[in-house]
Design a protein that fits this description.
The radius of gyration is 26 Å and the shape is elongated. It is built from 14 helices and no strands. With about 325 residues, the chain is mainly α.
């Protein structure tokens, strides 16, 4: 969401422009390099011919469609016509997807994490980021910024832009963006274009900031005109907290799915099983409290401590598991 704010402000020329969140021309250069001198898509004739059989990929299909429009509009072929930037990009994407498909199988999902302990979630996020780096992806913020910039390059109106970026936003945040667009259109009594100098676009960008602030995003810290050490630290802390919050939401969704699967295969629901287990443990705890000093109670307490140690070791390192030396 923060990347969306930055891209909108950069494209509209509102507020600060940082290297990561720059104007359209800067983002185009970052996406396609020098070969984008001719076509906005960065494609060449050779590129389009090579990728014709791969139009089942939505990204390829959209790029070829935009390329055809540019050809009929009379846009000149880039000077480096021998390059195939789109083909290289798509090949890189699928190579990265193979690395992710294999690597994600070795990442343990912390379904049993405690609400007050975010360490397992942070470990989960760190392992996902490490896998993304191995697959050739940049940090999440940079990748989202690229995706947003790519969608903005060929969008003529903000409405078209918002339709394209819907998969990159949560439902609630996309709804707030749509609401901001409707308000900007009502003010100007016309559709809002992607023109950086238009009053409608600038009004929309300001409304996006207001929507972001309402959603709890520290807009001033993120979009500050000067990124000093304190600003960078605050920005990094916000990014980590946002990543943990997103990962927690995803893990909770996976827990709900796992519970639903268990419910289909058990005579009792997963919730009922957990309640019965908790009730049994509570009853056992009361009995142990009333039997202090007895040999069986002391032995049982010792066994419980070993089980607690075992669970803690597994939670701390799911891949390695308990270490006998630390017992």
């Amino acid at each position: 969401m923060a990347q969306l704010i930055g891209t909108l402000r950069g494209l509209a020329g509102v507020g600060a422009r940082t290297p990561m969140l720059g104007a359209a021309s800067m983002l185009q250069g970052a996406l396609f390099g020098s070969s984008s001198a001719g076509y906005a898509t960065g494609m060449t004739k050779k590129d389009a011919a090579y990728m014709l059989d791969a139009r089942d990929d939505p990204e390829v299909d959209a790029a070829i469609g935009a390329y055809v429009k540019e050809v009929y509009a009379g846009v000149k072929e880039p000077a480096s016509a021998g390059d195939m930037p789109l083909a290289a990009k798509v090949e890189k994407k699928y190579a990265g997807a193979q690395i992710v498909a294999q690597g994600v199988q070795n990442i343990a999902v912390p379904l049993g994490y405690a609400a007050k302990d975010t360490a397992p979630i942070k470990r989960f996020v760190a392992e996902l980021n490490s896998l993304a780096t191995k697959a050739g992806f940049e940090c999440a913020a940079a990748e989202v910024t690229k995706r947003l910039a790519e969608k903005a390059l060929t969008a003529e109106t903000v409405k078209a832009f918002l339709d394209r970026i819907q998969p990159l936003c949560s439902e609630s945040y996309h709804a707030s963006l749509t609401e901001a667009l409707a308000a900007a259109e009502a003010e100007t009594n016309s559709s809002v274009s992607m023109d950086a100098t238009s009053a409608g676009y600038k009004a929309f960008a300001k409304k996006v900031e207001a929507a972001a602030s309402k959603a709890g995003i520290p807009v001033k810290a993120i979009m500050g005109a000067k990124r000093d050490d304190a600003g960078q630290t605050a920005y990094a802390a916000w990014q980590q907290s946002a990543a943990v919050a997103d990962a927690t939401t995803e893990v909770e969704a996976m827990k709900a799915t796992a519970s639903a699967v268990l419910d289909k295969h058990l005579s009792k629901t997963a919730v009922a099983v957990r309640k019965e287990a908790a009730a049994s443990m509570a009853a056992l705890t009361r009995r142990l409290d009333t039997s202090k000093g007895q040999a069986w109670a002391a032995a049982y307490q010792a066994d419980l401590k070993i089980i607690e140690w075992f669970d803690a070791q597994v939670a701390a390192s799911p891949k390695v598991g308990p270490k006998v030396a630390s017992a």
